Amino acid sequence: MFVFHSSVGTFWIKPHQGRYVLGINDDAIGSYHSAVAAADDVFTHATGHFPWDKLDGIEEGPTDIYEWEHN
Length: 71
Known about the structure:
By secondary structure, this protein is α+β, with helices and mostly antiparallel strands. It has helices spanning 35-43, 50-53; strands at 2-6, 9-16, 19-24, 27-32, 69-70.
């Protein structure tokens, strides 16, 4: 699992049935073909999670998956 702590909560990415699920705190918010694609949506503030997406230009996320914590 990959983890990124932001001001609006903890994002996570984990494999599930051949895909990768992006979530924040206790909620799954997207399904992706790769962990990199999920991390890219967090970086570009295109997650569909409004509290994070509205911080575009205000709070930066990791530029790629290698900057996320890996558990």
